[in-house]
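Table S2 (text version). Query chain:
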Amino acid sequence: MTGVPLSHFLVLAVALFTIGAVGVVTRRNALVALMSLELMLNGVNVAFLAFARWRGDALANAAVFIVMAVAAAEVAVGLALVIALFRHNRSVDLDEATRMKG
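Corresponding structure-token output:
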């Protein structure tokens, strides 16, 4: 019995990254932009693990764990910024954030 080919993993990774990139570029809501950014990071992680599995390298799992930890910290900081933006503007629209002065 053979495993899943590398190309299937890469198609999934590209799809996740593309959906995330389109979400970051087209959406004005800060929360949706953060979720799209997480999709992009997950796509990169899937590709990283696929290549690690293809090469037989187990050390990549630790690197992906570090990327996930950094992504969790990024979400915490991003959510704090979104909350501050909402308290100031009563909106999470990213266009409102670009108009802030001070």
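Notes on Table S2: The mean pLDDT is 88. The helical segments are 6-26, 30-55, 60-89, 94-98.
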